[in-house]
Amino acid sequence: MELIEFLNTKDCYAANAGAELKEVRDGYARAEMTVTDAHLNAGGVCQGGALFTLADLALAAVMNSRGMLTFSVESNISFLKSAFSGDVLIAEAVEIQNHHKLPYCEVKIFNQHGELICVLTGIGYRKNRSLL
To answer: Most buried in the list 75, 83, 101, 106, measured by CB within 10 Å?
Structure first.
């Protein structure tokens, strides 16, 4: 089983939120999610947890793209623009530092118009075993 299929199948929380990986390769991952009314907070915009879930799925994919089991140990997110019901969100994750134990990655989420919605940075802990 490939990483993209594995994570899309096994990350039940992300799948239930509507987040789906579209591309994964060494040092890069892309995930997408369409904002629905179920993602909205009381202010009528996409809830931060939904954005974090999409970013976290892309983060998990990029951190594990080298084949070794890697867990996120720290993530920071900055919300820059609101997303609304109907928006198609694209999360692009890149590995900034491919450290053998502590990879550092960045995820940017854009809407369908190319507007930057939020940025997440994360540090992982890479185990000495294969994910798959």
So the answer is: 83
3-state DSSP call for residue 74?
strand
Number of other residues whose CB lies within 10 A of the CB of residue 81? 12
Find the Cα–Cα–Cα–Cα dihedral 98, 100, 104, 110, rounded to 10°.
Answer: 50
Q: What is the pLDDT of residues 36-69, one digit of tens each?
A: 999 999 999 999 999 999 999 999 999 999 999 9
Q: Map residue 106 onto helix, strand or coil.
A: strand
Q: Are 89 and 109 in contact (CB under 8 A)?
A: yes
Selection from 108, 105, 117 nearest residue 39 by Cα:
117
Q: Measure the CA–CA gap between 35 and 10, rounded to whole angstroms.
A: 21
Is the pTM higher than 0.70? The answer reads yes
CA distances in angstroms from 26 to 29, 30, 74, 87, 95, listed in the order given: 8, 12, 21, 28, 9
